[in-house]
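During the reporting period the student researcher (J.K.) took over the structure-prediction task from the postdoctoral fellow and processed the backlog of single-chain submissions. One of the processed entries is reproduced below for the supervisory committee.
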Amino acid sequence: MVIANSIGNDRRTQQEFTVRFLDAMESLEQDEEWCWVEYGGITKKIRFHDYDEVYKIPGLYEFLFYEKLECNSPRMVCSLLKKELDQSPTNPEDLVVLDVGAGNGMVGEELVRLGVEKVIGVDIIEEAGEAVERDRPAIYEEYLIEDLTELSPSGKKILEHRDLNCLTTVAALGFGDIPPLAFAEAFNLITAPGWIAFNIKERFIGNEDSSGFSRLIHEMTEEGIMNLRSFKRYQHRLSLAGTPLYYDAIVATKQKDIPREWIDAMNDENHTFRF
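J.K. obtained the following structure tokens:
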């Protein structure tokens, strides 16, 4: 087995965690990767996409995805957005960003570095909100724990009254974490014209996609609902086997809402886009 050690960023205890990986992970799909983690005297098997478990251990998310697997997505998507903003009349400080699947705040942190002053985070996992409060408490103006397909009355009121003009979602689409229906609901919370910046694994916008994202994005562009500004293929991160995993980063402008009948059709088909 390969053993890697890292010190967690819990300022209260600086408690060490130990991560152990199997030597051979070639046969695992991206959302099946896992490791053993020893922390606080307990050893536990943690799957990388079980984010609730990952977020509980200070520093584990950063160690796994950014130190070990060289994830580049928050910086890539946000820098691509900044490049497009620089060629438009919009300044970063003009944005009111809805960061969907905000996790422990790494995308929000990148946005603030770019000069964005107002970021509202949304995630469905309570542990994500706890991690933000612990690790990056100054990043978000508000952080909501909500299911975007079933917004609570209070959550809906907050989001509809914030004049949101930019949507970001990074490393959250395509594996069931944020389905097309949730993406569509988030998209419709953004004013038009507005900015959209996201990434997605190549296969989810290809001809073989069964998640619904490929057709949704195609129809949105065909119908003029959003205009593509930038499209960049890049290395999202490495797999545990050391294989590059490629994603597409996309920046677009929103022109109008997704029709309600599309959303109703997605809802009727258990979050799969068919109409």
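The committee noted the following: Confidence is low (pLDDT under 50) at residues 5-13, 271-275.
J.K. will present the remaining backlog at the next meeting.
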